[in-house]
């Protein structure tokens, strides 16, 4: 397992997420109970994406990742906090996630990938960035594990590849690519596909990635030197709304 780092990939140590006070009170109670019981966890979802990309957005749910052995104890904590199973309102697959809600606020407990490709392990919980959210010190998932997980969300009604590309953009130059490639394993063509899109989308940024990476993935290396200012026009071919944090250079 990689050594834990207090603040990987330049993620800021102190963030203030735009979370309404009534929502945060629920989240804080769940977090406090988990700590009191000694359950290790890391936060994922939109909050974790915001930490690495700097593009904050409001959300009505909190994604908490735990080891499989801690799932029942963590589910019990949501009950103590007054949340109830979301299944009656909207059925879901309980084999990898438990969804709970209270007054429109949702807390998701996850212990594996949705496709069961892998369970949550120690690396997910201790190697991500350490941040302060609304005065609460927490750790988010490692960016490598987030990209790995999002590569498999390419469904008819949901696709996480845009978020994966944003994470690659934000953390690519300092990403632990060897670790990510080891995680992806035999599914390497999936990562190669995402990076092929990224290379076309942001050739200047892609040029900052390790040279060996492109050869390993059998993807043509991005052009070196000055790159024509094509990133913005290419992004707008896919989505005219801003992809990256305001004020962030494209390459």
Account of the protein in words:
There is one protein chain. By secondary structure, the protein is α/β, with parallel strands linked by helices. 40% of the residues lie in helices and 12% in strands. The protein is built from eleven helices and eight strands. The protein has helices at 21-36, 45-53, 71-80, 122-126, 143-150, 161-171, 177-184, 188-201, 203-206, 211-217, 231-238; strands spanning 14-15, 42-43, 61-65, 84-85, 97-102, 105-110, 130-133, 136-139. A five-stranded mixed beta sheet has the order 2-3-6-5-4. A three-stranded mixed beta sheet has the order 1-7-8, with no helix packed on it. Helix 5 (143-150) runs antiparallel to helix 6 (161-171) and helix 5 runs parallel beside helix 7 (177-184). The longest helix has 16 residues, at 21-36. It is globular and about 55 Å long. It starts with 13 loop residues before the first strand and ends in a 13-residue tail after the last helix.
Annotation, overall tally of beta strands:
8
In terms of DSSP E residues, the strand content is 5-15%
Output the strand order for the largest sheet.
2-3-6-5-4
The end-to-end distance, rounded to whole angstroms, is 32 Å
> Which stretches are low in confidence, meaning pLDDT under 50 for 5 or more residues running?
10-14, 246-251
Q: What value does the average pLDDT take? A: 88
Helix content: 25-40%
C-alpha-based Rg, rounded = 19 Å
The gist of it:
This protein has 251 residues and is α/β, with parallel strands linked by helices.
């Amino acid at each position: 397992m990689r050594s834990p780092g207090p603040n990987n990939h330049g993620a800021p140590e102190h963030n203030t997420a735009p979370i309404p006070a009534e929502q945060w009170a629920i989240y804080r109670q769940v977090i406090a109970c988990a700590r009191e019981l000694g359950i290790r966890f890391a936060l994922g979802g939109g909050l974790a994406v915001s930490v690495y990309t700097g593009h904050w957005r409001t959300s009505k749910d909190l994604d908490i990742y735990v080891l499989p052995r801690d799932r029942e104890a963590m589910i019990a904590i949501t009950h103590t906090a007054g949340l109830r199973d979301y299944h009656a309102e909207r059925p879901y697959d309980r084999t990898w996630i438990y969804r709970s809600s209270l007054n429109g606020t949702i807390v998701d407990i996850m212990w594996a990938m949705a496709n069961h490709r892998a369970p949550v392990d120690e690396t997910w919980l201790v190697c991500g960035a350490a941040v302060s959210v609304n005065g609460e010190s927490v750790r988010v998932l490692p960016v490598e594990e987030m990209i790995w997980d999002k590569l498999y969300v390419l469904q008819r009604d949901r696709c996480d590849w845009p978020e994966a590309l944003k994470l690659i953009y934000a953390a690519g130059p300092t990403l632990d690519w060897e670790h990510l490639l080891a995680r992806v394993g035999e599914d390497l063509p999936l990562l190669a596909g995402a990076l092929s899109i990224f290379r076309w989308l942001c050739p200047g940024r892609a040029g900052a990635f390790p040279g060996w990476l492109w050869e390993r993935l059998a993807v043509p290396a991005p052009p070196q030197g000055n790159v024509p200012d094509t990133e913005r026009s290419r992004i707008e071919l896919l989505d005219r709304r801003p992809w990256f944090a305001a004020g962030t250079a494209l390459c």
